[in-house]
Amino acid sequence: MPSKPCKRVKPDNYSIGRSGNRGFTLIELLLVLVILTILAAIVVPRYAKRSEQARITAASTDIASLEAALDLFEVDAGRYPSTEEGLEALVEVPAQLENWKGPYIKRGVPKDPWGNPYVYTSPGDNNSNSYDLYSYGPDGKDGGDDDIDNWSER
């Protein structure tokens, strides 16, 4: 019996023009990279801005917590720690202080969210009856609009 000729099967539309290789073309890869770059350009600045705002909020919260601890110190000792005693007086009893009932903060004196120590002076230049307490803020430099302090409106 004579054999019938085989029917030729057409390739599906996906593989037309691809020489049988089902990988991505260079143009497709470049298009994906362009789209990802555009998305990153939109998302990253928003995330960075929120991250910086979260640090500013954390510094304000730290300052409020330190203020509460300093007020407790003042109730017990009858005065705020001196500039020389600093915020360490909230953790360790200062020399020749009898009424210290601390520690007034549990985990030691925190650093600000940028890794710098909080600045404490008593009496303060801005709060002459008590103390000044502030962070240098994101730029890490004294002065400027980005400092976070206990005398400005929050």
TrEMBL record:
One GO cellular component term: plasma membrane
Positions of region (Disordered): 120-154
Keyword Transmembrane helix: yes
Composition bias type Acidic residues, residue spans: 144-154
One Pfam family it belongs to: N_methyl
Coiled coil: none
Entry annotated with the keyword Lipid biosynthesis: no
Major localization listed first in the record, in broad terms: membrane
GO biological process: protein secretion by the type II secretion system
Membrane topology: Single-pass membrane protein
TM helices/strands, residue ranges: 24-45
Residue ranges, compositional bias (Polar residues): 123-132
Family the UniProt entry places it in: Belongs to the GSP G family.
PANTHER family: GENERAL SECRETION PATHWAY PROTEIN G (PTHR30093), TYPE II SECRETION SYSTEM CORE PROTEIN G (PTHR30093:SF44)
Entries under NCBIfam families matching the protein: IV_pilin_GFxxxE, typeII_sec_gspG
Protein name as annotated: Type II secretion system core protein G
Organism annotation: candidate division TA06 bacterium ADurb.Bin417
Gene name of the encoded protein: xcpT_6
